[in-house]
Amino acid sequence: NKKNKHGISFYSKEQDIYHEGRLTLMSNLRQDLADDRLELFYQPKLASTTGRVVGMEALIRWNHQQLGFIPPDEFILLAEETGVISQLTRWVINRALSDFVQFRAEGYEGDISINISARNLSESDLPGYLTSKLSEYQIPANKVILELTETAVMEDPESGIVALNALTDTGINLSIDDFGAGYSSLSYLKRLPATEIKLDRSLITDILSSESDRVIVQTSIDMAHNLGYDLVAEGVETQEVLDLLTSMKCDKIQGYHLSRPLDREAMSAWLEEALNTACENN
Ligand code: C2E
Ligand code: MG
Ligand code: MG
Ligand code: MG
Questions:
Q1: Cβ(180)–Cβ(202) below 8 Å
Q2: CA 20 to 30 Å from 212, out of 29, 36, 154, 281?
Q3: Long-range Cβ pairs for the range 71-80 (8 Å, 24+)
Q4: For residues 146 and 175, is the Cβ–Cβ distance under 8 A?
Q5: Residue among 107, 113, 143 at smallest CA distance from 275
Q6: How many whole angstroms from 282 Cα to the centroid of ligand 2?
Q7: Would the ipTM clear 0.95, i.e. be above it?
Q8: pLDDT class for 6, splitting at 50, 70, 90?
Q9: Counting atoms of ligand 1 from 1, which one is nearest the CA of 198?
Q10: What ligand 1 atom has the least distance to the C-alpha of 96?
Q11: How confident is the model at residue 4 (pLDDT cuts 50, 70, 90)?
């Protein structure tokens, strides 16, 4: 039995779903969501040519009362398998939009990205939930981007497209996350109502040393532009990679080199600094 550092078995197979540790963990997650004990961190997204902040991505953080910090990659998968993802996504949407109201009041004019999972696409009331939250917080729909991984859409392309159209009919935008990590092609993706593509970190990591990764990235950038998408690179960790991607006409950049994900207070402070710098440069 493979166990992670928290001593909990993680299988991607359904057979292990009744493992007691996983069930306990998921009932803890439900309870902590209900008690508002999770947190959202925010990572800025910058325009590569101007260096201006144009967006931010909400990333969930769970500090389990006994086990401590558990990375989202570990509990999101479980949440998907057990259906807790429905409650989780609603919690994230609500929290992200209410924090967004505060960031906007502080002068932030960019957009906000929220990650959703493939399982959320089968929830027919999700577009309605989004619409009601947008109106509750008086947020223009076109300021909100939902990020969905490429592999998520590929699981069930036909019904996925129908669900994505229902979501984008609310006026929100769609971004294809982790592009290049799976097997889909841009020619398939152009059937999706997306406005943005995020290149997977695995394509960016070795871009300075790997000629083939550079070719793949440049090809993706050019094709994305020809098809009318914005192109974002995630996982930019150095100035050299930032410079290279800018020269390759990559539109937007995210990564530790610009900022790690920050809690709400730290994000407010980061934005204040960024907005002041932008004013001075005018
Ligand atoms: P993602 O949406 O592709 O998010 C990018 C991940 O890369 C984040 O990890 C972020 O902290 C990390 N990252 C950002 N810049 C860099 C960098 O320069 N270098 C490196 N090495 N990593 C960087 P995180 O926060 O651990 O999230 C992992 C994944 O968990 C996310 O991947 C997303 O798929 C999922 N996730 C996170 N929050 C949520 C959420 O609220 N809802 C859903 N459904 N999934 C979420
Ligand atoms: Mg994402
Ligand atoms: Mg990603
Ligand atoms: Mg990812």
A1: yes
A2: 154
A3: 74/4, 74/10, 75/25, 75/29, 76/117, 77/10, 77/12, 78/10, 78/22, 78/25, 78/26, 78/29, 79/26, 79/29, 79/117, 80/117, 80/118, 80/119
A4: yes
A5: 107
A6: 31
A7: yes
A8: low
A9: 3
A10: 41
A11: low
